[in-house]
Structure formats: C-alpha cells, structure tokens
User: Which sequence fits this backbone?
C-alpha cells in the first residue's frame, strides 16, 4: 500500500521539483529595480533544514564547485554534499549549471529528484537556460515554459501524461520572516509550477485519471546578497476515484515541504 502511494506521488511530484504559492507574509509592490545581488562564486555554500509533516527533518548542503561549460556558455556548477539532497530546491540545482544574464538566473542541465525518488517513467527533464529567477519580474510574469507528453505503463495501466512546467515572477518584499522566525530584508520571490494531465484506457474506454491540475507549486524566497533563504513546496493531486480504487490508493493527497536556510558563507 505504502509503495503504491509513493509510486503515484513520484509520478506527480517528481515530474519537477521543485514548490508553494501560499505564504503568511504580505507582499510588496514589484518595481523595475535590478539592484539585487545573487552570489554566484566558486566555494559559496548554503545549508538547509528540510521539514515535511510526518517525517524527520533532514539537512541539505548545497555549494558551487566551480565552472562548467554547457553548449559554449560558462555556468557555475551546483553540487550537494555526498551528492545527496532531500529538499526540492537543492535537488533541482544539484549537478546543474546556473549563470546570470540580463538580470536573470538561467539553469541548464538535468533536473534531479530528491534523494530516493526514482520515476518509473521516461520523462525528459533536461533544460537549457530555463529562467529560474528574474530580478525585475512582475508578479506572475511567465519567465520560462517547458511542455511535454509521453506514455508509460504504471501498475498495469497504460498512462498518457501531458505536462507543462513554468517559472513565474513573484513578489518584492522589504522584509520577510520565515515560519521559524528568521527575518531577511530586501526579499524577492520566484515560483515554479507543474501542471499535469493523465489519461488511461480501461476496458476500451478512455478515462481521465488526473484532470489538468497544478500538482506542484513551489516558491523560493531570495534575499539580497544571500540567495534562497526559504523555500516552500506544495504537492497536491486529486485523481479519478475509479482508478484510485483499482490501485488501492487515496484519491487525493497533499504534502508540504519547507527548506530553511541555516548557514552560508
């Protein structure tokens, strides 16, 4: 039973890393100001406490190991200690390259899943210059979009999966206090949203397993001169009750993961 729940969760939440659009702080007005520093230098590091309801807290160590050339461009390569991570944010940067261009952060590489999450599907998570942050983005401005469609058999069901991955601009806040009480000044947010639709065929009849839903929503809170200080990711899905009964899993599930910055150089 538990294995089946994790399997479906991996299909949904593992498609991309990544999420949350709900926070308790009031947002400020977006401005065209680009006087905002993102530290991208070799040997920079950040450690995060990763919290998820019903699970023990874990710790991620993210750092920049040096330069890497991807399709002729120079990026800073992000890695995690012992190549292990459990948080959405650290997992999405692990082993990938990030560069800054025209006040944007561009990510290239293969988007990783959190440690221990392996998808039983052939999803293409490779991206080139996917915009993960724009300093002067307006609220909900679409920064990058990646779409895909593929077929895979899971638990005996032939699934057709369509997905759209988007990054969007967020808020500009003079200050932000995390749920654990840490306060940061000059904070900007960036959002990542994964929308998925899944269909299957049962007894010759086409059935919608998962109607088009935003199954992953993630918000990263970036502090001036520091980088990501807090990240909140919500995974949520509601599937067809008939299919849920066939698989013996809940027809809906919601989980929230938070990443709190602990130390950084």
Assistant:
């Amino acid at each position: 039973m538990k294995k089946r729940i994790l399997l479906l969760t991996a299909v949904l939440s593992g498609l991309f890393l990544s999420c949350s659009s709900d926070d308790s702080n009031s947002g400020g007005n977006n401005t065209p100001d680009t006087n905002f520093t993102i530290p991208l230098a070799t040997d920079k590091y950040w450690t995060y406490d990763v919290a998820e309801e019903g699970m023990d807290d874990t710790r991620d160590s993210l750092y920049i190991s040096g330069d890497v050339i991807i399709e002729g461009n120079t990026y800073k390569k992000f890695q995690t200690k012992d190549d292990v991570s459990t948080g959405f944010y650290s997992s999405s940067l692990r082993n990938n390259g990030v560069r800054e261009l025209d006040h944007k952060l561009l990510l290239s590489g293969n988007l990783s899943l959190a440690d221990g999450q392996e998808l039983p599907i052939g999803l293409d998570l490779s991206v080139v210059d996917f915009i993960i942050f724009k300093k002067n983005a307006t609220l909900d401005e679409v920064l990058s979009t990646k779409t895909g469609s593929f077929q895979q058999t899971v638990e005996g069901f032939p699934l057709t999966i369509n997905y759209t991955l988007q990054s969007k601009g967020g808020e500009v806040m003079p200050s932000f206090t995390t749920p654990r009480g840490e306060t940061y000044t000059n904070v900007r947010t960036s959002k990542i949203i994964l929308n998925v639709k899944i269909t299957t065929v049962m007894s010759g009849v086409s059935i919608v397993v998962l109607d088009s839903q935003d199954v992953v929503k993630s918000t990263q809170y970036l502090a001036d001169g520091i980088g990501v200080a807090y990240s909140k990711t919500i995974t949520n899905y509601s599937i067809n009750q008939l299919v849920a009964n066939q698989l013996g899993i809940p027809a809906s599930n919601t989980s929230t993961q938070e990443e709190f910055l602990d130390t950084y150089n």
Summary: Helices lie at 2-13, 88-93, 241-247. The first helix runs from residue 2 to 13. The chain has three helices and twelve strands. The first strand starts at residue 45 and ends at 52.
